[in-house]
Design brief:
The chain is mainly α and 195 residues long. It has one domain. Helices cover 87% and strands 2% of the residues. Strands 1-2 form a two-stranded antiparallel sheet. Strand 1 and strand 2 form a beta hairpin. Helix 1 crosses helix 2. The longest helix has 38 residues.
Length: 195
Amino acid sequence: MSNVQAQEIVTEVKQRATITWWILLIQGIVMLVLGLMLFGQPGKTLIVLTRLLGTFWLITGILDVVAGVLGRTENSRIWTILAGVITAAAGLVVLNHTMFAGGLTASVLTFMIGFAILVNGVLQIFIGRESDDGMGRERSLSSLVIGVLYVIGGIFLLGHQGFTASLLLSLIAAWALITGIAQIVFAFRIKGAIS
């Protein structure tokens, strides 16, 4: 590779970064605002996010139906239309029953987490670990203790779904804040590097 080719590549990368650094900045700001909203007013934020999800499903469902009818799809037209109808219907249900959909989503998610932990605990207790001496499976003390702790944790989470949902929202809020700050910092670093 010659110096001219290398310089052309550097110039192209700088041009692309000049055009796109602000997109990363906007994404970071949105994530930061989302994190602050989730910490400040988690209930209202969850309702807004649920409505956005319903709107997204409704629009994409309609677009899938249109693509299927017009034959502008790589997939089977019938399956594309069917998927579009189901997606649009789900969007309408979510938009017409926002509180129910938001609560149901949180309940299902927390149930799945608690159930998964409970099942993993039971499996840990009964399966144990493979012994190093080739004598087959044995129930070691450590796998028994870990399994029992998982079972206790799973039962607790299943019995306290409100706590689990609240904790999950707090973790998502913290993730959004950290991600937003990192994206903003990275965007300005890119801008500084191209200046």
